[in-house]
Every structure is written in C-alpha cells, then in structure tokens.
Amino acid sequence: SCYKNLGLVGEVFQPSLLKSMKRGQIAIGHCRYATTGSQVLENAQPLLIRHRKGNMALAHNGNLVNAEELKEELELKGAIFHTNSDAEIIAHVVTEGRLATDSIEKGIELAMDRLKGAYSMVMMSATKLIAVRDPEGFRPLCIGEKEGAIIFASETCALDSLGAKYLREVDPGEMMEIGRAH
Questions:
Q1: Contact 178, 134 (CB under 8 A)
Q2: Which residue has better confidence, 131 or 181?
Q3: Whole-model pTM over 0.85
Q4: Model confidence over 112-160: pLDDT tens digits?
C-alpha cells in the first residue's frame, strides 16, 4: 500500500492515519522537498512502479545531471512520464535494466552506469529493500538499527529521532540489500 501527501511529516501522518495503515516488514518513506519539478502530489515520493517482472517502490534524494538526456532517450523508446521528477527517470532506467536481466540488483547496477549526478535512493520490492549511493558519494546515506530492524536514512538525525543506533555510512557506489524475514 502507499500513502502520499504534501506537508510536514507530523501533519501528513496523523496518529489516526497511522493506525489505519497496513502493517508490513518493509517500508520506505520520503520527506524531502523537490529539487527538480514542482511541489505537487504527482512528484511526491515514493514512486510506485508496476511491470511484468514485479512491482517496486522508489524514493530518491539528489539530482541527475543527465536527466534531460535520459528522459529524451526514454521517450523516444516509448516511455510515458507522469511527473517532472528525476525519480521517475531513475525508475524508468532501473526498470529498463531490470527487464534486461534476471535480478533487480543487476538491473540497478546497469542503471547506475547510466545515472550521472548526486543521488542516494532506496527501492522496495515485495521481498527486499535495496539502498544505493551514487558512485562519487556526493549524497549521504547512512545505516542504522533499532530492535533488529535495519534503517537507511539520508541524515543521522533521522536515526536519532527514531532512537536508532548509527552503524555506518553506505560507501560510495555501494548497493545494500535487506531481505524480508520469513
């Protein structure tokens, strides 16, 4: 399930809404203002992607310097865009890589070869959470832990607010996968 809205986290996620939401073992969230595109609900993240090899959700922090070039290339192949966000371009590039390989991880690796700029992102499938930091390490991404749960955040203050223990930074170019417990 997915819930998105604009505003401060405390305003968007009221206690009554949180009580009504489905519970799961994997989740991603995003609470950053748009650096590209406009502040409209369509650009809010995470983005949900549905395709023949499985659904995924994606949240991203950063900017691609080759966004326009990638978007034009994808549109000429038939891609349709619903936002004016770098995140949707990333979603298309990851999906294109995923359709050409036998795993989402290999698809992400192919995408990272094409994405130029500063970014960190998290992606979620039905069974795993994947975190990625750009090869140059321009955008931060840290790992924390709370009560056995692994948490990725762009800033350590997010870990502090959750009472999570800081473990380390994700290395530049590193991809980390966390599978769902059975």
A1: no
A2: 131
A3: no
A4: 999 999 999 999 888 899 999 999 999 999 999 999 989 999 889 888 8
Burial of 101 (0-12, 13-18, 19+ CB in 10 A): middle
Token readout for 7 is 């505003």
Q: How far is CA 151 from the centre of its chain?
A: 13
For the chain, the residue count is 182
